[in-house]
Write a structure and sequence with these properties.
2 copies of one chain form a homodimer. Chain A is built from 14 helices and 16 strands. Chain A has helices at about 10-15, 15-20, 65, 115-120, 130-155, 210-220, 260-280, 280-290, 295-305, 310-320, 340-350, 400-410, 415-425, 435-445; strands at about 20-35, 40-45, 50-55, 75-85, 90-100, 155-160, 165, 175-180, 205, 225-230, 245-255, 310, 355-360, 375-385, 385-395, 430-435. Chain A is globular, with a radius of gyration of 27 Å. Chains A and B meet through strand 1, helix 5, strand 6, strand 7 and strand 8 of A and strand 1, helix 5, strand 6, strand 7 and strand 8 of B.
Chain lengths: ~475, ~475
Amino acid sequence: MQKEFIIVKDLYKSKEEYIGKTVKVAGWIRTSRSSKNFGFIELNDGSFFKNMQIVFDEKLDNFKDISKLPISSSILVEGELVSTEGAKQPVEIHAKSIVVEGTSDNSYPLQKKRHTLEYLRTIAHLRPRSNTFSAVFRVRSIAAYAIHKFFQDRNFVYAHSPIITGSDCEGAGEMFRLTTMDLNNIPKTEDGKIDYSQDFFGKEANLTVSGQLNAEIMALAFRNVYTFGPTFRAENSYTGRHASEFWMIEPEIVFADLEDNMELAEDMIKYVISYVLENAPEEMEFFNNFIDKGLLERLNKIVNSDFVRITYTKAVELLIESGQEFEYPVEWGCDLQTEHERYITEKIYNSPVFVTDYPKDIKAFYMRMNEDGKTVRAMDLLVPGVGEIVGGSQREEREDVLLERIKEMNLNEEDYWWYLELRKYGTATHSGFGLGFERIIMYMTGMSNIRDVIPFPRTPKNAEF
Amino acid sequence: MQKEFIIVKDLYKSKEEYIGKTVKVAGWIRTSRSSKNFGFIELNDGSFFKNMQIVFDEKLDNFKDISKLPISSSILVEGELVSTEGAKQPVEIHAKSIVVEGTSDNSYPLQKKRHTLEYLRTIAHLRPRSNTFSAVFRVRSIAAYAIHKFFQDRNFVYAHSPIITGSDCEGAGEMFRLTTMDLNNIPKTEDGKIDYSQDFFGKEANLTVSGQLNAEIMALAFRNVYTFGPTFRAENSYTGRHASEFWMIEPEIVFADLEDNMELAEDMIKYVISYVLENAPEEMEFFNNFIDKGLLERLNKIVNSDFVRITYTKAVELLIESGQEFEYPVEWGCDLQTEHERYITEKIYNSPVFVTDYPKDIKAFYMRMNEDGKTVRAMDLLVPGVGEIVGGSQREEREDVLLERIKEMNLNEEDYWWYLELRKYGTATHSGFGLGFERIIMYMTGMSNIRDVIPFPRTPKNAEF
C-alpha cells in the first residue's frame, strides 16, 4: 500500500510533475481549522519538514467527522494538487476523499501551544512529531550519513569497535559494569572476593568509553579506518553537555602525523556542515529562525575559513597577555578550561583553532612524546560557541617510549600486551582523533542541551523509553 | 606526510596515469625473498586487497638490511611504476630507495603458513593483516555503507535507538545487567531487597536486545526510519551463529503493510549484495576461490531471482507432503527449525522464501493479529545455505487488540504505556523487520563462524581485545 501515497517531499521538490493531477498522500494532522462549509488541514507525512495544506469542503461525505478530527490523527487523502502562487506554500491539495486511518484524542499532549524543552523530554515518544525535534533528528540522520560518506569516499574502512570491553584500560572515564550474576547471591572465591570467573565473560566486563585502541589495530592493517558507534560514561554529571550514552566518531590514519590529522579533522567538519546545509535547508532555516539567530552565518563562515593552528604554549601566552580575568587562572601546565578555550576561539581568533602539543601530564599515555620530553603531540579543536569539539593526537609508535610511559603512569603493562605488539610488528607513524557526534549536532542546530539531540537520552537517574 | 604516498589501490585502478613515473608508497611487507643481488617484496598498504610487488637490487645502499627485513615490517618505498604485461600483477615498482619505518620480528605470528581460524581468533590484533580477514572486514565496511546508502537514498531517517534500556520488555532474549553499584556492598532496602533506586539510572538497567519499539516511535513521526546499531544477548550459546554482541538493522515503515515489508527486505538484500559485488570484486573473488566455491554463483542468482512468498500453513503442508524425515517432526503450530527452513529454501524452492502468517503462540505480542484469530502477520525470510536471515512483521496498530495481547501474554501493561499511546494518538498501519548484520556478512563471504566476521567478537567467557 505504501507506494500508492506520494511523499510530501516529492510534491514540493517536483511539484511541476504533479500540479493538476490527482494524488494520494498519507500523514498526520498537525493543525486543523474549519468553518461550516470548508476546512484546512496542515498535514505532515514525516517525509519532509514542511506540511502539505489540505483543503476540504462539505462535498465530502464525512465532512463533519473530518472537521472534528483531533490533532495527530492520521488520514489518507486523495485530491488534486493545486498551485497556490503567492501563498505561503507553493501547492495545496483539494481533497476529493479523506479516509481516517487512526484517530487521536484531545488529551494529545503536543497541542499547538509552545512547550518547554524540559516537558518535551518527558514525552520522548511524541516529541519527534514537533517541528523542533523533527528538524533535529532529521539533521542527526543526515549528518550521520555525511560522516560515513566522507570516510567511505576516501577509502576508509568502517571498523566496528566492541561495545563490551574486558579491559578497563581505555582510561577515558568511569565505566558501567556489566554482569549476568545474581546480585542477590554473588559468587565468591574462597578468600571472599567476587568470583568474576563465574560471570558471563569469565572476568570483569564494562561498556566501552572509546574505540581508539581497537581502531589502531584496524588502522595498522587497513591504513585508514574510522569507528562510529556508541560510547559510555558512568559519570554523575548533570550538565547540558554530558550524557551517559553518546555516539563517537574515531578515525585513525597511518603513515600520517599530526598535520595530517588536523587536516582530516578540518576537512571532515567542513564536509559534514556543508552536507547538512545542502541536504536539510528547510530544517537549517528553521533553526536559524527559531533556535539560534546567527546560526547559518556562523556555519557558513566556518566552512569558508582556514582553521588556526597554535601550540598550547602559545595559547597560554596569549591568555596571560590578554589580561582577561578567568575563574581558573592560567599558567603553563594547567589544563585549559572551557572559559579559556572559548576565549581563544571566540575573542582572540574568532575562528576554529587547533591547539597542539600539550604538557604530557595532562594528556593520555598513548600520545607521542615530543623531543622536549615535556609535551606530547596532542591536538584539540576549539570552535566558537562550544569550545572543544575534537580531541586527538599522534600516537606513540615507539615501543620503548610507550612502555616507559605506561610504567610512568602506573598502568599495568600486561593489560596492554597487544597494544604494545602493534609497535613490535611493523609499527608506523599514526594519528587519530575523536569527535563526539552529539557535539557537532548541537553545534549545527543551535540546540544547547545534549538531551535534545539524542532521541532517547540516557543520563543519571534517567533511562526512560 | 600521508599525501606523499600514493595508495596501492590507485596504482592498480589508475595505472595508466602512473606507469613510467616515480611514485612513493608506504606499507607492510607480506612476503619477501631475495638472492645475492636483488629481491622481491609483496607490499600491502591496507588500501587494497592486492599487494604491490617491489623489486629492489644491490644498487640500494641498504640492500642487505632490506633483504633481511622480517614479514610485517613497514617500509616507505620510492621507485618507478613499471608495467609488467602478462605477469600475475599488472604493475610493479622498481625501487630507488626503501626506508624502514618500523621493523618486525621473527616471532611475528602470521607467517606464511596457513593458520586455523581458531588460532587467528587468539591474535585478533593481527588477523586483519591476513588475506582472509582483510577481505572480511573490508566487505563488512562496504556492506555497512551500502545499508546506509540504500535507506538514505530512499529518504529513510537513521534513528539511533538507545543501547542502555530501563525496560526489560523488549522480549527478545536474555539481557546483560548494567550497574555502577559496588558489588561488594550492594545497597539494600529496608526489607532486604536490592535498592536499585541507588543505582546509576535509579532502576534496573540492561543492554538492549532490539531497537524496534523505539524505531516505531520514530517511524510514527518520520514515516520511514531504520536503526543500525549494536544489540546484545546474554545467552550461553556456543554455536558458530551466535555472539553476545552483534549489529542489527531494523527498518520500520508506516502506511505500509506486510507486502511492503517483504518488498523492502527483498530490495535491501539484493541492493547490499549487488553493491558489495560491485565495490569489492577482488575480495569476493578471493572468497569464491578460497572460502566457498559456489559463492558468486549463489549470490548472483539471488540478485536476479524473485523471492518466493508462502504462508506458514502452506510451508507446513509442503514439509509434511515431502515425506522427508526431520529430527523435529513437523505439525501445524510448531516453530520451524533450521532443518525445516533449509529444506524449504534449498530443496523445495532453491530460492529465497518469505514465510508469512505464523501461529500467534510462537510469535511476539506486537505482531498484527489476522482475522482468523490464530495467526499473525509475521514474516521470516529464509535463504539457501543459512535459513532465516530476516524476521519481521506488520505491527498491531489497534490499541484494543494490542492491549488484549499484552494481557494474554501476561506482560505488564504499565511497561508499555508509551507503546500503547502510539496507538492512541494517530495510529497507522506499519511494519518492520530485523536483519542481523553479521548474518548477511557470513552469507556474502561464505565465512561460517560469526566470530570470524566481527573484528573483536564477544561470546561467553570471551571479551578479549
